[in-house]
Specification:
82 residues; alpha/beta; two-stranded parallel sheet; two-stranded parallel ribbon; globular
């Protein structure tokens, strides 16, 4: 499964593309257990991946989301979508 280690402003465009390709290949989960570096751009990427999966009528499981990223999602009011 797709398992990014960093989703920050600096690498978000590349990681976003990688995730989109994984979803296009039919992957249904994203493993964040090794995610060591992230900022608010990670929330945007996760939402974009969820939308892409929904457009394929597929669900996307987010596995191992770090507590700090969960807090960011809650802060932005989008935690229910992730």
């Amino acid at each position: 499964s797709f398992a990014p280690t960093s989703i920050t402003m600096a690498d978000a465009p590349d990681v976003l593309r990688e995730g989109m390709r994984a979803i296009e290949r039919g992957e249904t989960s994203i493993d964040l257990t090794q995610l060591a570096h992230f900022d608010s751009s990670a929330v945007s990427a996760l939402l974009a991946w969820q939308r892409a999966a929904a457009e394929k009528s597929s669900s996307l499981d987010i596995v191992g989301m770090p507590a700090g990223l969960q807090s960011l999602a809650k802060l932005y009011g989008v935690d229910a979508f992730l």
